[in-house]
Amino acid sequence: MPEADPQLFDKIVNLSKRRGFVFQSAEIYGGFRSTYDYGPLGVLLLRNVKDAWWRNMVQMRHDVVGLDASILSPPQVWEASGHLSNFSDPLVDCTNCNARHRLDKLDDPNVCPTCDTTGSFTEAREFNLMFKTNAGPVTETAAEVYLRPETAQGMFINFANVLNTSRKKPPFGIAQIGKSFRNEITPGNFVFRTREFEQMEMEFFVPPEEASQWYDYWCQERMNWYLDLGMSPEMIRLRPHDDDELSHYSSATSDVEYLFPWGWDELEGIANRGDFDLTQHANASGEKLDYFDQTSGERYTPHVIEPAAGATRTAMAFLMAAYDEETVGDDTRTVLRLDHRLAPYKVAVLPLSKKETLTPTAHEVFDSIKGRWIADYDETQSIGKRYARQDEIGTPYCITVDFETIDDRAVTVRERDSREQDRVSLDQLEGYLAERLG
Ligand code: ATP
Question: In ligand 1, which atom is closest to the CA atom of 184?
Fold first, then answer.
């Protein structure tokens, strides 16, 4: 059985800061708790995670189309969706130390984990997680609006728009990637639970009798996505919800879970939501949100299968899955064994020295690569230190331009995982990389 590695947590947080993946937000002002900024490498990693999802869920399929809906929306949306009345977590206050906790996430519901006091909690009250603000210049008359706590409602309220314009018919899906906001009671575990985060969600609309078969299909598909991008099968599992965990409208839900340093926790939820969402919005808006099947002459409200993943949370899980320490001689080398598709930089161009004789050729190499692969260019420090840095940020290939390059028009290409080196002539370089990076 695989075991959680509690030490990995600090290593990832430190690496993230040291190498520029993730910074504490507003750090120069003391930091804004539980919000994070993605630095030069983090923004590339996060984008690669989202691109890999989009490619798999939209580009490679003819039955899913994309959407980018607004973040602000009026209360009617959230009234119909049930979020205004139900999107809450049970909150308890500790009367001893004033800490606030989410009751359903406590190891022991009677013990405050902040001060270890037993029986110090107030009665639980439901705390709504949505951020509310005002749209319009004058607060008193401005309309109340909400920041979306999930991207999914954008797909439901645009169901008819997409159906009428895309020439799709059930079974078909609408996919969206974007920011969501939840006023979490206890954010934490670095970017795992934050108040502002990114989601990757898809609503798949199907004829009611096909729902359970599509649910099984999407559970499998989604597991395959994580495995294909390099997560090891022992570190990831699909956990079906118990009956008491299911929302009232869902006949089946499973979570994709990863073995984080603190134990198994959720990356994604896949739910069979029945016709709940379309029916709610149809009733509340008075619009028809159903489908007329011309072949059978039947009108029905499609059922929905929803794979809902977190982009920011998943990016961190990929970092953790890729992190490795390897003994090389007397040293330990840290290497991020990221799948090439996720690696922030695919290639690093490293002139052996900063001497002017090497610069033009090194620039020439960088220029020949940059259009096709995101590349780093680094000319300071010893070559050993520069290799170590590239290993630590997961760059699959380092290209060293040395003094012989000027004469033989060839460079040394070093592979990250094996540390093996090949001498490759400049006119073969693109083909060499293309074979390996795609
Ligand atoms: P949890 O039980 O952890 O609060 P949830 O079951 O409410 O999460 P969903 O509503 O199913 O989460 O959201 C889908 C996905 O969005 C989650 O699996 C997760 O990856 C991501 N997500 C949800 N809340 C957060 C958050 N506060 N910070 C980062 N990612 C989040």
Answer: 27
Residue 310: other Cβ atoms inside 10 A:
24
Q: For the segment 222-243, what is each residue's pLDDT rounded down to a tens digit?
A: 999 999 999 999 999 999 999 8
Identify the helix (H) or strand (E) that includes residue 250: none
Q: Contacts from 400-403 at CB under 8 Å and sequence distance 24+? A: 400/350, 400/351, 400/352, 401/349, 401/350, 401/351, 401/352, 401/358, 401/361, 401/362, 401/365, 402/352, 402/358, 403/352, 403/357, 403/358
Nearest protein CA to atom 21 of ligand 1, as residue: 310
Per-residue pLDDT averaged across 106-114, rounded? 93
**Residue 137: pLDDT band by 50, 70, 90 thresholds?**
confident
The residue among 254, 287, 293 whose CA lies nearest residue 273 is: 254
Ligand 1 nearest-atom number relative to CA 199: 16
The DSSP output letter for 99 is: -
DSSP line for 139-179: TTTSEEEEE-S-SHHHHHHTHHHHHHHH---SSEEEEEEEE
Give residue 128's region: left, alpha or beta (phi > 0; psi -120 to 50): beta
Closest CA to 19 of 396, 391, 437: 391
Helix ranges (H only) for 136-275 are 152-157, 159-166, 211-228
The rounded mean pLDDT for the chain is 95
Query: Tens digits of per-residue pLDDT, 194-207?
Result: 999 999 999 999 99
Q: 322: closest CA among 348, 340, 345, 347?
A: 340
pLDDT band at 78 (very low <50, low <70, confident <90, very high): very high
Cα of 27 from ligand 1 centre, angstroms = 25
The per-residue pLDDT for range 305-319, each reduced to its tens digit, is: 999 999 999 999 999
The CA-atom distances, in angstroms, between 178 and each of 40, 62, 147, 354 are 19, 22, 12, 42
> Is the pLDDT confidence value at 141 over 70?
no
Residue 140 has pLDDT above 80, yes or no: no
Q: What is the predicted pLDDT for the residue at 247?
A: 86
Minimum CA distance residue for ligand 1 atom 25: 193
Statement: residue 335 has pLDDT above 80: yes
CA of 161 to the centre of ligand 1 (A): 27
Here the tokens at position 63 are 């039955």
Question: Quick one: which H or E segment has residue 53?
Answer: helix 40-54
Nearest CA to ligand 1 atom 22: 310
From 199, 222, 268, the mutation candidate for ligand 1 (largest count of ligand atoms within 8 A of CB) is 199
Q: Residue whose CA is closest, atom 13 of ligand 1?
A: 308
